[in-house]
Amino acid sequence: MRIAIDAMGGDYAPEAVVQGTLDAAGVIEAELALVGDLAKIEACLPKRDRPESLEIHHASQVVEMDDSPVVAVRQKKDSSLVVAAQMVKSGQADALVTVGNTGAAGAVSRLMWGAIPNIDRPAIATVIPTYRGSTVLIDSGASVDCSAKHLLDFALMGQIYASQVIGIENPRVALLNIGEEETKGNTLTKEAFTLMKSYMGDDFYGNVEGKHLFEGLVDVVVCDGFVGNVLLKSGEGVAEMMMRLLKEELTAHPLMKAPLALLRPAFKRFRARLDWREYGGAPLLGVKGVCIIGHGRSDAYAVRQAIMVAAQAVAGQLVPTIHQSVQLLHQTEAKRA
Amino acid sequence: MRIAIDAMGGDYAPEAVVQGTLDAAGVIEAELALVGDLAKIEACLPKRDRPESLEIHHASQVVEMDDSPVVAVRQKKDSSLVVAAQMVKSGQADALVTVGNTGAAGAVSRLMWGAIPNIDRPAIATVIPTYRGSTVLIDSGASVDCSAKHLLDFALMGQIYASQVIGIENPRVALLNIGEEETKGNTLTKEAFTLMKSYMGDDFYGNVEGKHLFEGLVDVVVCDGFVGNVLLKSGEGVAEMMMRLLKEELTAHPLMKAPLALLRPAFKRFRARLDWREYGGAPLLGVKGVCIIGHGRSDAYAVRQAIMVAAQAVAGQLVPTIHQSVQLLHQTEAKRA
Question: How confident is the model at residue A175 (pLDDT cuts 50, 70, 90)?
């Protein structure tokens, strides 16, 4: 197995990406190919005792965070992102990992690898922390205008991701909605409810509200990419606001220093339970290849985890399994019609 | 001024509603009409020294939290909600306050009072806590399938609510989106951006992401009711999850009891800054009357605040101002066309 890593993407590239790759090299059995500016990557690597599984592939350009996807695909053919995607296309690598420009990563893998037949829209499956552990949110931002059929595809892909990569047996898949009853929602979710119930049977849990999502009652939550992205970012916003307010109040008076110091381990455990880096990367599902996209703010640990997700996705046969399941669904549909 | 209060709505009715009304009676100059089961309301009131501004109007039925809006309107004509709305319609009262069934309250006021001309969809304007204070989210759940024109109406109504009721001069109005650039978003938000820019000029701040919303950079945030409801409930979910995790970690060991006690005032201030009850009620905008809807979990303080919001809405001429502004917009549109 070989994983191509875009060394130049993200806010802390290439240092964090290279360090995360070194850390991953120590724990997984896969060739790791760092793609990007040779000199800059070299500068981040130790002079000796480099892991044998590490390779460097030079690429002269960089896709910036604010480049449009079109620019990335058309004008930056020798960028670290495009070169890494090309390695997957040609069979030189089994997966692409990037913590750079999300839109560009989506466009590059869709255009260069193509879509899985009968999947009209790709979706990003993001693991979010909940009270009981974590839940997969799909789509968290790849496809912003969706039909009910697209949401059904997302549900299937999310279910396969949860079972094949995260290792959840019989994942419970729910539809994100504004009420629990079947009759609640907008036109899209009402149609999607009917479709999911009809095709997924008992695997479909029903509707779940935003509030209950964070209780961790279900394993996969399905929504369109606009709603998912709003949910993800506003959740981040609420968490950040609370942390700031809490910090302000707890540091408002010097007398609180001593008791606060005694509670530090508890605060540390609290933060650890909210850590989004555990699954440092989210797969773009629906394309013919493994593409793991991480947060632009990823540090070395998040990059390491994104590489682990990529390795699990390859080992878990994520793409072929999605391919097969969707063809099965399509045949069932054709028979019904 | 007279405010009709649905005494039977909400999880803690009628006790919390009656107590909140008593508390409000001490601070505002308005007649307060409690509508509901006479005997039950009487049982919650003190035997003597009742405020002179307090009245009771008997209603024999109750709209339950899980009644469909249709049931409320058609089959519960002598319910506290419908009787209170009838008082507004007949001119006996100037505003309706309820902390009961939101869907029923919306349906009852729309059907009994009618919509403001040229407003095709009503919207709920909810005040949410942010790092810098608070922001109005509109629509937080009344209209789940919207066009760009509807979002423009919401923007105008939200702007008027923020200035006339909350007292913000020149409120900054933003569109909730998944990126800040004009080109970002789904079909709906792209169209809405163009429309809002064209009609609102400098009053329009542009796009705001869910993450930045909680920094409190803008005064009014516009979205469709599905997205707004998901944002509101998932934000509540994140906050609740964090509170639970924090509590679990901070109470995991008896040795933490003493330092925790010393920090109690700071934790109290932290919670106060997140208190949603300050604006205990959200107006349903776009109907011909003042309808303030509170959270089903409202306690006496939240009910008191909802009544204050109603009084401010009446005093601030909320409904006539919306009426005028929308007619102006409509004339401008007609001239352009």
Answer: very high
